[in-house]
Design goal:
It contains 20 helices and no strands. It is mainly alpha-helical. It starts with a helix and ends with a helix.
Length: about 400
Amino acid sequence: MNCRLWKLFSMFLLSQFGTAFGAVPQPNPFHQAYINEYERGHYADAERPQQSEHELAIRQNDQVAGGPSLGYAGLRNAGRSEYLAGHLASAETLFRAARDSAVRAADDEALATIDNDLGDVYIGEERLDDAEQAYARSLRLFKSMGSREFEVAVTLRNLGSAYSLHQRHNNALKVLDEAGKLPFWTSGGDRNTQALAAELANTKGIVLFRENSLRKARDRFEEALRIRRDAGLGGGIGDAGTLNNIAMIDVKQGRYAEAEVPLLRSIEITSGALGSSHPELTLTLATLGEVYTRLGRYTEAKEQYQRSLSILWTMSPRLDGRVARTLELVSGMYLKQGDKTAAESAFAKAIDFARRVKVEEDPGLSDMFDRYAALLRRLGKPEQARDVHAEAQRIRVEATLTVRISQ
């Protein structure tokens, strides 16, 4: 399921204003120019700093205090540009520098926004514990300010996304419901509010999908598409993530031919907006590869897997868990073609990458080891299968201990 495409939008809902919203977001000429460019895919124009009075004050404060000449508003803008480009490591470095500067200046408003930005980066890097902690810090600050209901709602949504990825579904639904009950919703709202409403629906759909409530999940995803369309935001980057999620339901239901159309549309939107080699494409490309594998279109499947992996190889930091899961899909393709040697080789490489992933960051990791053990048994290698199954059991025990300690 694709959560991160929303981050590319939600980050700017907070940051472009310098978090200068009131209880109900009001039109802002700087932001309107930005959002127009964003929707058109003109990211260079969208990323051109639009300095509000708040941001200018931040820069002046930094210079007077002897801080970096760029100031933490400038560092934050640079971090957002790197994040949008998919350069997660450099984005993290910039956001951390911005955060240090904001701490020195005792600017809680900027600090809350930057912690939200860092949470987004950590989600992209699949560092879920760090993401939860960053969002929690941001949430505490926004709640302490008063008249920050929109920012609180965005942060609750982001925290719910992190909880969902961590398979903490009850926690996810709790914070998503809290976001949906904030008083500012009763006042209607502009397109930013509607974009947030769509993402709350989308994220609830993801939680329902993971709980195997597929009909309810589809209803939420379609609700998200409808909200964006009615707000004039249809066909944008938010829709790309939701279309991918709808396709995932089709895949889970074995409706592979039906899944192809939303996946292709999702890839078209994302490529047009972010470029043909952006990290946001990797999950959707891998899913399309799985669809083509199931349909027996192996040449096309291999092309999608190769494209996904070629993007993953160049990422910094490299997402070892995502590489592992993509290689497992490649193994499945070879197995369907009857090439058992290639299937075992691809799965062995997947396991090598999976061993580099922290257990607490991927609670379902042990299942991959069990699937590899099953393949080894199928290939007549029972002793190796037993060793891999034992490793899966150790991972489960470690995951259980990690959860207990964190609670």
